[in-house]
Amino acid sequence: MKKVDSRHPNFALLAVLAAAQLSHASSLSTPSSSRPRNPWTILMRRDTEKGPIPEALSIAPSQYWEGNDGPWSTFPLQVGSGAVGGLQNVRVMISTAATAIWTIASEGCPDGYVEQCPTVRGGLFLRNQSLTWVPDSIYQTGLETNLGLDSSGYVGYDVATLGWQGSGAEMTNEHSIIWNMADSNYWIGVFGMNPRPTNLTDFSSPQTSFMQSLFHSKNIPSVSYGYTAGNRYRLDGVYGSLTLGGYDGNRFIPNDVTFPFYEDISRDLSVNLHAIATSKGAPSNLLPDGSISIFIDSTVPELWLPESACAAFEEAFGIQYDDDMNRYTISSSTRQRLLTQDAGITFMIGPEVNGGETVDITLPYSAFDLQLGFPIISVNSSSRYYFPLQRAANSTQYTLGRTFLQEAYLIADYERQNFSVSQCVWEEEKVSSQKVVSIISSHLNTSSISLADGRAKVEGKDEAVSRAVIAGVAVAAVVFVALIGLMMFFFRRRNAARKRRQAELEEQEKAARRADHVIPHISHPVGGELDNDGAAVYEISARSKAHEIDSHCEIDRNKYGYSEMQGQEFIGPGKGFATEIGSTAIYELAGSDAQVPELEATRAGRQRSGRGGFI
Ligand SMILES: *[C@@H]1O[C@H](CO)[C@@H](O)[C@H](O)[C@H]1NC(C)=O
Ligand SMILES: *[C@@H]1O[C@H](CO)[C@@H](O)[C@H](O)[C@H]1NC(C)=O
Ligand SMILES: *[C@@H]1O[C@H](CO)[C@@H](O)[C@H](O)[C@H]1NC(C)=O
Ligand SMILES: *[C@@H]1O[C@H](CO)[C@@H](O)[C@H](O)[C@H]1NC(C)=O
Ligand SMILES: *[C@@H]1O[C@H](CO)[C@@H](O)[C@H](O)[C@H]1NC(C)=O
Ligand SMILES: *[C@@H]1O[C@H](CO)[C@@H](O)[C@H](O)[C@H]1NC(C)=O
């Protein structure tokens, strides 16, 4: 009996270890376990060290008022790196249409051009002084071609940080697409907020935008932003507000109206403008021919409206188009009259062509009281004001420019493919503080299984694990019970046999003792050794796959139309990039035709208006 008893601890050990093994495995799918439930969560933690879901970030403005058609609030941007020039600080305007960064090149400030040229142009980016600059070629931006404002410049890749470096409110992208431009269509650089990839035609793959890169590197919770341009006439100046991956809830009056992205992705932020009305002046209806589809685009300052609307504005405010200046210039006496009259102008916009829900955005007259600068007017001319209105030749030119975003707050969500436009708030305590709200991508929702790539599979694996564990436990329990029963049976049998044998042996022993014979040896049963340290090994193979991107674009290799500035030759500096503009083909870049995932490609019919006369 003794020898059989000695086997029992081994059975107990086996059972305990088996149970431990199972419970360890099942803890994989137990949410209450300290082990993170989802392998994706682990990756997120490692990547961001900010918790699994990053927060929206509000970018601090530069605190400058500048531009030659403003004043406008700009944002700080650092471009480049290296020992030669170090980080280069420039200031940029926010563009809701551009997909890349446009900087001003040293060629944009030729000798004797204008006093303090680099400063008044928001700072230059000297690409030859950045050790990380990867030059490519010269391209047209492909943007605002419908307004006759296409520009071109050197394109390359470099590190770019939006916001002051080290301020804690900045975002860096190591591989940003950067235009380095000389012409004066855009007096100050531009930061493109549009997350569609840029297709540079001679690349096999489209170039990921700043916003997409930030999302892929898990620095922002979604490909979305909130923006308002700010203005200098309210509260002694309220700077622009830009939030990446969310919005600043303190800057606008919320409304329930949501606009879907327009079918033409190059005019995605289009709204239906139902009416324009003024509180003072006649006629009060400033959009006599009714509803139009119009694109919200902060790249340009003006409102581009139908000619009938422009005529109504002319009549209501007594303004005249200056064909030499290509603007509605305002004389100082007219300006005084209009400022005193202080007419409010209300834009009624909605997602439907007619009817349905609408939002009213009211602009005070001050929003239209903007000033021109060099080179639109000559260096020594006295200050000139203009009314930011342009006659659109046709519907491709209808645009609500930056002027509109002085009083409107825009939230664009590129994942849900919708946006909202709200009237800004001008209460001092609200404007001076922030209420940053994150827009969370469904790609980051840990309870969602609608993920496009890696995580859905990982989650599926988790569920499979828990199902397997349950099945395993059931089977193991049955097998275990059966095994014990079987073993008991065998041991009983063996015991009985042993007893019989022992009895026999004892009999023999007695007989041997009697006969002086050697006692035979009975070996002890060997205990079953468990070859298992109880450790569960599992592999996590979560993979964060980049979004598959599909885009296209058209090349126009016949375009050489680079506008040289004031007879200056546009010659690239050394470093193997001394290409003369005249001998370099300029490719028309239709980067804005590239798509964000899930977007159907539709091409814009872009047209040139032949508008010029800048220099
Ligand atoms: C970079 O280019 C600028 C303007 O073209 C020139 O003045 C400067 O010397 C160049 N710097 C270097 C390091 O090549
Ligand atoms: C502008 O004025 C300055 C001094 O008042 C003068 O030196 C300069 O030549 C003027 N420039 C032009 C283009 O008239
Ligand atoms: C986009 O649509 C969702 C619902 O589908 C809504 O909750 C959200 O507020 C909308 N976003 C904007 C910016 O309008
Ligand atoms: C995640 O998704 C679930 C269901 O799809 C939803 O109920 C929940 O609110 C989402 N959570 C977040 C943070 O979006
Ligand atoms: C980029 O544009 C070119 C020219 O239209 C096109 O051939 C190419 O396929 C595009 N690249 C991608 C990845 O779509
Ligand atoms: C729209 O107007 C522009 C500028 O005049 C012109 O170039 C273009 O052909 C027009 N487009 C259409 C579709 O009529």
Question: Can you characterise this structure?
Answer:
The chain is α+β, with helices and mostly antiparallel strands. Strands 20-19-15-16-24-17-23 form a 7-stranded mixed beta sheet, covered by helices on one side. Strands 1-12-11-25-26-14 form a 6-stranded antiparallel beta sheet, with no helix packed on it. β2 and β3 form a beta hairpin. The longest helix is centred in the last third of the chain and has 62 residues. The protein is elongated, with a radius of gyration of 36 Å. The N and C termini lie far apart (110 Å). One 2-acetamido-2-deoxy-beta-D-glucopyranose (NAG) binds next to loops.
Brief overview, please?
With 615 residues, this protein is an alpha+beta fold. The protein has helices at 2-5, 8-26, 39-48, 117-120, 210-216, 307-317, 332-341, 428-431, 454-515, and strands at 57-59, 65-66, 72-73, 75-79, 88-95, 101-104, 134-140, 152-162, 171-181, 189-192, 224-228, 241-244, 246-248, 259-260, 270-278, 292-296, 303-306, 328-330, 345-350, 359-363, 370-372, 384-387, 389-392, 399-400, 408-413, 418-423, 436-438.
Compile the SSE list and pairings:
Layout: H1 2-5, H2 8-26, H3 39-48, E1 57-59, E2 65-66, E3 72-73, E4 75-79, E5 88-95, E6 101-104, H4 117-120, E7 134-140, E8 152-162, E9 171-181, E10 189-192, H5 210-216, E11 224-228, E12 241-244, E13 246-248, E14 259-260, E15 270-278, E16 292-296, E17 303-306, H6 307-317, E18 328-330, H7 332-341, E19 345-350, E20 359-363, E21 370-372, E22 384-387, E23 389-392, E24 399-400, E25 408-413, E26 418-423, H8 428-431, E27 436-438, H9 454-515
Helix pairs in contact: 2-9
The chain binds 2-acetamido-2-deoxy-beta-D-glucopyranose (6 copies).
